């Protein structure tokens, strides 16, 4: 899985930048993640080892005499080896519609007697199928047996149910086209076939599909070995055997017209893009990035992809409906359309970049996830952390123009630091048992912290040793499952061989890794510099945004550089801190020192006030005195330090003042998050908000002027376009006059038939509609409904949410419950509405109160409806919260989301209270920040003073 949009628990919160939300993303997972000792009952016994599995599926899109429409017949045949004597019942997992005939046979084909009164039981709570042998009959250790099960399955209505689901769309030909796809990760193989549905059970798979003769060829993990002539209206398609793999990687895509839209035509190293034919013009970019990514990964990881099994292919298919961003099914990766299909002039650069990075993520999974697999989902970072790391670094290797190695910091390291700072954060290795817990652990931590840890290791060990350790691990564990110890062993061997850490006698790499993998959270280091003596005293403590305390100590690779000889290129640690406090001696000098060079270490840094002041002064004089990645670090750390009460607002804003002169993407990306976070806590204080926004316009001036409202040069660097995308969205959103004027003018041009550059559409639509009429809203709605590029379709949907027109809001809300908004987009669709205009929260609340049953159904279940309520509360004023509260109380028994709703209300109030409490202090600091920077003469005196004191 790739992160973003792919998580079952918090789809909307994570789909959008975390800082867009006034509510802390972790509060929901607390509620969902309840556990008890009985949960291990959800795990399969390990007494049987599946070796090979044959699955034959006959889909029914239409009802037949004895089958309802959207069902399928299945026959699964599993060859197993008994791992012990005395087995009298065989347990596997299933969550299908009906179980029919079951047989168990010995290797010689002889039937084994089942219990005549109860041949099998369906333990639905655990989704187990228990096959009972006749009393006294047992399997023998190392004996080979075959289990054959006939069954009937569902084609679910939406992708959000996973398993096999159906999708339909109207083509350019005006006809409705159907398809069925499968999404089995993480615990949904059992919906497609009774299975050993845990990643640690690996076997080979042979898939057979009997598809309607008038349909297009079915696609699966492997090429078809044969396709029969139609018999009774069905074509029998037999696929080659897969490599040995986990059941969640199985996939089938049955459709009436999906086709190959791009193909590299290379018989030895095939790479193809598949989609609905109407998207035939959108596959070129995906084809451009995929083959070089595959090649680079092969060389870096030392295992050729196309030799992983016989007949390997490397297909990528775009599905209009998909629960997550993409899923790494071996041989046929499935993507939500917008994550694979690019259309020039329609798709914006943010989405284009995602196509590259997510392709890299999914291809990275071929090694980390498919070839070697997490034993169980408690260590899913072994799959997702690596895939997320390569998402940026593999893509960077094949396209330098995207600056992805640098973007890794703001996109992954900083987002990990943000989510990992709550008291309820999980360690990378975190016990999970039930399907709900499993989905919960497919969280930001497994992806972003996993990746950030790998990045820290690369810089700590040096890239050669890092790479060698991955090669050892993959070579030793290929086609098997892995635990953290297996990862650690690869590192230990490479480190030992290369002598990579010999200068650090206090470091044992295995212990180092254990600390990072088994401990939750991360530290902030408090750095106190005596500029007189050069002594640097460092203390570490776990960083919590709000409350929490702990005595944890992490092994920290330290890097630093100082003003007199700044060195931003050396990112190898000079010291490793393995205790609570630590001293370093540098050359005494009255100068700034910065720790965590280019933020490659996974920790935050706080300094004594004087060092901070010197940093602020240096940045005032020349922002480029400090490397842009360390400016990104400073911005992100300063906001976090202020939030956690470790830094005064006065000092924080004194430092942040340099943003008024800085136009770097790397500074502004975290700055926008930080400013939004504060701003979202002032929504209930109109006067404060108005003044704060005035201050922010001054911060934005230089960046807005430098970027311009539109690109002057169509060949500008990608990060400049990205910077404009985020800066203008922010500026327009907070009412920056120039931005709003430009955007409304563009919107008017569009209404009159003009075309808007996709890279500014998000804020042009939003600003245009916020003040616009119903008629103007309808113009965009028509374009939305006609859109043939999904990335742009979602931008338009988001834009439609920005209206404040009552009738338009009403029509928008009604539309969300229809097929005009895809099930996967509905939770976000609600959020777009209140993000677009806070006043819409009230209107949405009234709609949700009346229609909650339909909404729960439309977003497919309570987990997602929880998110709708939580986001709603976050944007609702006190009056609305009271309304929401009394509705929840009055319907306590009929609203399953009651407790989440109540917590969301409390959380929203806590955020407002925080704003009320801190408003004066923040305004004062923000207002006065420039004045606080001392003139040079004074500074000289101040520094002399400091020199005496320290
Ligand atoms: C590192 O520690 C592990 C146990 O945590 C131990 O097994 C191993 O021998 C140690 N390695 C070295 C080089 O001391
Ligand atoms: C480290 O420096 C601090 C502050 O200067 C001092 O109190 C402490 O004794 C030093 N510790 C060591 C181990 O040198
Ligand atoms: Zn993934």
UniProtKB/TrEMBL annotation:
One of its GO terms (molecular function) is zinc ion binding. Residues 592-898 form the ERAP1-like C-terminal domain. SUPFAM superfamilies: Leukotriene A4 hydrolase N-terminal domain, Metalloproteases ('zincins'), catalytic domain. It is a lipid-anchor; GPI-anchor. Pfam families: ERAP1_C (PF11838), Peptidase_M1 (PF01433), Peptidase_M1_N (PF17900). Its main location: membrane. It comes from the Eukaryota. It is found in: Cell membrane. InterPro entries: Aminopeptidase_N-like_N, Aminopeptidase_N-like_N_sf, ERAP1-like_C_dom, M1_APN-typ, Peptidase_M1, Peptidase_M1_aminopeptidases, Peptidase_M1_dom, Peptidase_M4/M1_CTD_sf. Keywords: Aminopeptidase, Cell membrane, Glycoprotein, GPI-anchor, Hydrolase, Lipoprotein, Membrane, Metal-binding, Metalloprotease, Protease, Receptor, Signal, Transmembrane, Transmembrane helix, Zinc. Binds 1 zinc ion per subunit. GO terms for cellular component: cytoplasm; extracellular space; plasma membrane; side of membrane. Residues 62-249 form the Aminopeptidase N-like N-terminal domain. Its cofactor is Zn(2+). The chain crosses the membrane at residues 930-949. The active site is at residue 362. Its EC number is 3.4.11.-. Zn(2+) binds at residues 361, 365, 384. Residues 1-19 form the signal peptide. Belongs to the peptidase M1 family. This is Aminopeptidase.
């Amino acid at each position: 899985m790739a992160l973003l949009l792919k998580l079952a628990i918090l789809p909307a919160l994570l789909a959008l930048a975390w800082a867009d939300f006034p509510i802390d993303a972790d509060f929901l997972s607390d509620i969902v993640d309840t556990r008890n000792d009985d949960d291990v009952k959800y795990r399969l016994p390990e007494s049987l080892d599946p070796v090979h599995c044959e699955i034959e599926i006959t889909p029914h899109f239409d009802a037949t005499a004895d089958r309802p429409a959207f069902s399928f017949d299945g026959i699964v045949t599993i060859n197993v080896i008994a791992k012990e004597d005395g087995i009298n019942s065989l347990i596997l997992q299933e969550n299908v519609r009906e179980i029919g005939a079951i047989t168990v046979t010995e290797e010689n084909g002889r039937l084994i007697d089942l219990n005549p009164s109860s041949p099998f039981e369906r333990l639905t709570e655990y989704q187990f199928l228990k096959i009972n042998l006749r009393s006294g009959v047992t399997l023998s250790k190392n004996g080979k047996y075959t289990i054959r099960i006939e069954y009937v399955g569902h084609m679910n209505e939406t992708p959000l149910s996973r398993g096999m689901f159906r999708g339909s769309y109207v083509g350019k030909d005006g006809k409705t086209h159907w398809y069925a796809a499968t999404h089995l990760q993480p615990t949904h193989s059992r919906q497609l076939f009774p299975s050993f549905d845990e990643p640690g059970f690996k076997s080979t798979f042979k898939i057979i599909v009997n598809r309607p003769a008038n349909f297009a060829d079915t696609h699966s993990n492997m090429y078809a070995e044969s396709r029969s002539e139609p018999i009774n209206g069905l074509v029998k398609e037999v696929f080659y055997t897969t490599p040995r793999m986990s059941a969640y990687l199985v996939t089938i895509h049955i459709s009436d017209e999906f086709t190959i839209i791009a193909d590299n035509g290379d018989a030895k190293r095939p790479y193809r893009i598949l989609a609905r034919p109407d998207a035939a013009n959108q596959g070129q970019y995906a084809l451009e990035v995929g083959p070089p990514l595959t090649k680079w990964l092969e060389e870096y990881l030392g295992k050729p992809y196309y030799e992983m099994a016989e007949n390997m292919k490397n297909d990528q298919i775009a599905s209009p409906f998909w629960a997550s961003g993409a899923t790494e099914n071996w041989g046929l990766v499935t993507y939500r359309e917008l994550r694979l299909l690019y259309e020039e002039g329609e798709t914006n650069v943010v989405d284009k970049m995602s196509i590259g990075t997510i392709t890299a993520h999914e291809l990275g999974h071929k090694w980390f996830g498919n070839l070697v697999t997490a034993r169980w989902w408690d260590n899913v970072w072994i799959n997702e952390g690596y895939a997320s790391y390569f998402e940026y670094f593999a893509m960077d290797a094949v396209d330098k123009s995207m600056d992805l190695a640098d973007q890794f910091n703001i996109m992954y390291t900083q987002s990990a630091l943000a989510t990992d700072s709550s008291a309820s954060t999980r360690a990378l290795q975190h016990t999970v048992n039930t399907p709900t817990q499993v989905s919960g652990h497919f969280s930001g931590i497994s992806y972003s912290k996993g990746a950030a840890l790998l990045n820290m290791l690369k810089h700590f060990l040096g890239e050669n040793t890092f790479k060698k350790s991955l090669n050892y691990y993959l070579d030793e564990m290929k086609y098997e499952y892995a635990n953290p110890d297996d990862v650690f062993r690869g590192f230990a061997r490479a480190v030992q061989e290369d002598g990579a850490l010999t200068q650090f006698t206090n470091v044992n790499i295995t212990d180092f890794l254990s600390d990072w993998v088994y401990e939750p959270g991360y530290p902030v280091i408090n750095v106190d510099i005596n500029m007189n003596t050069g002594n640097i005293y460092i203390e570490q403590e776990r960083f919590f945004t709000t409350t929490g305390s702990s005595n944890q100590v992490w092994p920290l690779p330290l890097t630093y550089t100082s003003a007199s000889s700044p060195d931003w290129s050396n990112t190898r640690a000079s010291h490793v801190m393995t205790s609570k406090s630590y001293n370093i001696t540098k050359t005494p000098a009255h100068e700034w020192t910065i720790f965590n060079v280019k933020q490659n270490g996974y920790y935050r840094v706080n300094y004594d006030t004087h060092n901070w002041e010197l940093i602020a002064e240096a940045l005032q004089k020349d922002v480029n005195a400090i490397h842009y990645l360390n400016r990104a670090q400073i911005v992100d750390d300063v906001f976090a330090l202020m939030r956690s009460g470790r830094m005064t607002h006065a000092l924080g804003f004194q430092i942040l003042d340099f943003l008024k002169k800085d136009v770097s993407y790397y500074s502004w990306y975290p700055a926008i998050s930080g400013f939004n976070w504060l701003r979202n806590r002032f929504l209930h204080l109109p006067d404060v908000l108005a003044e704060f926004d005035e201050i922010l316009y001054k911060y934005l001036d230089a960046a807005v002027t430098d970027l311009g409202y539109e690109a002057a040069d169509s060949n500008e660097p990608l990060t400049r376009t990205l910077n404009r995308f985020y800066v203008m969205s922010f500026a327009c959103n907070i009412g920056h006059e120039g931005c709003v004027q430009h955007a409304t003018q563009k919107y008017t041009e569009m209404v009159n038939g003009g075309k808007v550059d996709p890279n500014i559409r998000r804020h042009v639509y939003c600003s245009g509609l916020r003040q616009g009429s119903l008629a103007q809203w309808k113009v965009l709605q028509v374009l939305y409904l006609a859109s043939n590029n999904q990335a742009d379709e979602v931008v338009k949907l988001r834009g439609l949410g920005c209206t404040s027109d009552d009738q338009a809001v009403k029509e928008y809300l009604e539309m969300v419950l229809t097929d005009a908004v895809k099930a996967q987009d509905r939770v976000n669709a609600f959020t777009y509405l209140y993000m677009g205009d806070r006043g819409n929260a009230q209107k949405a609340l009234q709609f949700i109160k009346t229609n909650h049953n339909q909404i729960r159904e439309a977003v497919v279940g309570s987990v997602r409806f929880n998110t709708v309520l939580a986001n709603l509360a976050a944007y609702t004023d006190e009056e609305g919260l009271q309304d929401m509260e009394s509705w929840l109380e009055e319907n306590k028994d009929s609203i399953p989301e009651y407790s989440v709703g109540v917590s969301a209300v409390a959380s929203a109030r806590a955020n407002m209270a925080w704003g009320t409490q801190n408003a004066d202090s923040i305004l004062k600091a923000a207002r006065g920040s420039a004045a606080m920077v001392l003139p040079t003469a004074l500074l000289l005196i101040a520094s002399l003073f400091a020199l005496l004191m320290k």
